[in-house]
Amino acid sequence: MEPDYERDRGRAVEWARNLLAATDWVVLDLETTGLADDAQPVEIAVLNHRGETLLDTRVCPSVPIEKDATRVHGITNVSLNDAPMLHDVWEQLANVMQGKRVIIYNAAYDKSVLEQARQIFNLPELPASGYDCAMVWYAQYYGQWNDFFQSYTWQHLSGGKHTALSDCLATYTLIQEMAQYNNGERWLAEIEQAT
To answer: Is the pTM of this model over 0.85?
Structure first.
């Protein structure tokens, strides 16, 4: 089944515009120990609805960082020796998320890492009002359809540098760009050229 590109992109643009008109949301990003079932955050950043930094901290995990993860984000176990533990920053994280919709690029992954770590350290649940995945919305905006999966293809987050703060800023910038879109004909030409 072929998607309705124009309608779907319009919905993604509307999502971004509604976000920028609201004040009850934040952008969150994590860098982690890796992809294992016991993965934990090693860096956490949160921006408010104006793109201002509310939290930017490294975190010392209770498990070692995988070598592949270090190759991506450059954070080593030794560099975290003096960093606070997750339970030391959890209250601050909860405060900036209190009652907010949390926007994450690849929300399913970051949410699962936070939940795993919350359980490992026996911490209270985070008081967010909900979560949105900017990666899913951007895939719909970008419009590259995958016939096999019958869904839009997820796109790499451009502009991020694999630090939690830079990836938050890249996500925020992406939301702004989506909200400013107003040329459907140009977009359709780009899609046709890409296929």
So the answer is: yes
